[in-house]
Every structure is written in C-alpha cells, then in structure tokens.
Amino acid sequence: MDVNGGLLDALQKLGSTFAFIVGGVWVLMNYVRNRTHVPRLQVEVKAELVERDAQCWLLASCQARNVGLSIIRLPQPEPGGVGLPGTALTVRRLPEFGAETPMIEAPWEIDATVFEFFANHQFIEPGLAISEQKLIHFPGPPYDACWVQLRVSAHGEKWSAVAVAVPGSDPGKLV
Predict the structure, then answer these.
(1) Measured between alpha carbons, how far is residue 136 from residues 47, 61, 93, 116, 173 in Å?
(2) Does 154 fall in a domain?
(3) What total number of domains does the chain contain?
(4) Distance, CA of 94 to chain centre
C-alpha cells in the first residue's frame, strides 16, 4: 500500500507540473498571438462649422480610445508649452468653391493651422477613452468647408482621423 500511495503521489505531482507548464505555454502563446504588448489606439474627430452673429466658428470634438491591453503613455509637452510632439489638431480651409466639373478633389489651403491636443493627459489606461473639444474662431472671408485632422503619436506609433465640416451640416452624418 505504501508503494501504491507513493506512486499515486508522484503521478499527481507530475500531472500538476505538466498542467502548470501547459498553462504557462498557453498564456504565453495567447500573449504573443494577441500582441497585447503593442499599443492600439482608436482616434475619432468630429467637426462642425457654427455661424453666430455673422461670425464663423469650428467646433472640433476629438476622442482617443485605448482598445488594446497595454497602457499608452503620451509624450510630455515640448519645452515652452508647444504641446505634445506629434499630437495635434490640424485645420485647413476650403476657400469659396465655384462650379467646376462634377468630379474634382477640393483644393484645400496649403497652409494649415495646428492646435495642441491632449496636452493635459499623460497616459490612457486600457479600455478607457479621453476626449477634448476645441472651439476655433474663423476670421476673414466665409469658407465653404473645413478639413480637420487629429493626429496622435505615442510609443513610436501614429494614429489619425479626418473629418470635413460643412456649414449647416450635422457632424454625425456623411456629407
């Protein structure tokens, strides 16, 4: 009986060790396969042109959602309060656009205005989102549309989203 009990005990320990090793390999394989160490960010931008008292304003609503399983650490703002390196909101305007051929790409202004974004955030936890809105005044002549791009840079990766705002349109609908 003592020999059988010792044999059963050794088999139980061997089975436990085997299960522990198989479980560790399984976890490691899932980690590598799911690439949880790679930062994943989903960025969105919505833009709306608002007219009030004969003035034009751009309301830009931006969101960055961490859809991965690792923390995304945003770089510190550059010295002098310039903003985050590589993280910005870029705005280009479309001058009044006359009647042209039916299919033509809009001639956006070459000079873009850049605004800092997400400068008050240091990191984004997995599964969470950060959002920010900016209200930008448009001086000068009226514009037919506005092209807005949100660009976020972290961990050597870059993510971006683009929206076009047209006066009197709903920012949630495609134009």
Answers:
(1) 11, 11, 12, 12, 21
(2) yes
(3) 2
(4) 25
> What are the pLDDT digits (tens) for 66-119?
988 788 888 776 665 444 556 888 888 887 666 666 666 777 777 788 888 888
Assess contact for 147 and 94: CB atoms under 8 A.
Answer: yes
One-letter amino acid for residue 105 of the chain:
E
Same domain, 27 and 59: no
**The domain containing residue 49 runs over which residues?**
41-165
Q: Are residues 18 and 93 in the same domain?
A: no
Task: Judge if 28 and 62 occupy the same domain.
Answer: no
Assess whether pLDDT exceeds 60 at residue 121.
Answer: yes
- What pLDDT, on the 0 to 100 scale, is given for residue 174? 45
Provide the 3-class DSSP secondary structure of residue 3.
Answer: helix
